[in-house]
Amino acid sequence: MNIAGVVIHARPEQMSFVQKAMLAMQGVEIHGTKDDGRFVVTVEDEDYRETSDLVLSLHQIKGVLSATLVYQHSEDLSEEITH
After folding, report:
1. Which residues lie across from 43 on neighbouring strands?
2. What is the mean pLDDT of each run of 10 residues along the chain (83 residues)?
3. pTM for the predicted model, two decimal places
4. In a domain, 81, yes or no
């Protein structure tokens, strides 16, 4: 499993469009917004490469000024934990 935390900065007048575009992407969840165009987003996926592609795709949404990766965690959930 891979989880990435991303801060998106969009043009304030295009926030609604950007929000709809992000919510249409599988694995993307919006956790907070600010009126100045900022979003706090997580991207979750099973494959690291797909997670990276999703983060790059966020930057390509019309109205997005920047998409900054602020956190990334990867873990193999198929491995058994032994104590």
Report:
1. 4, 28
2. 93 98 95 97 82 88 95 76 59
3. 0.83
4. no
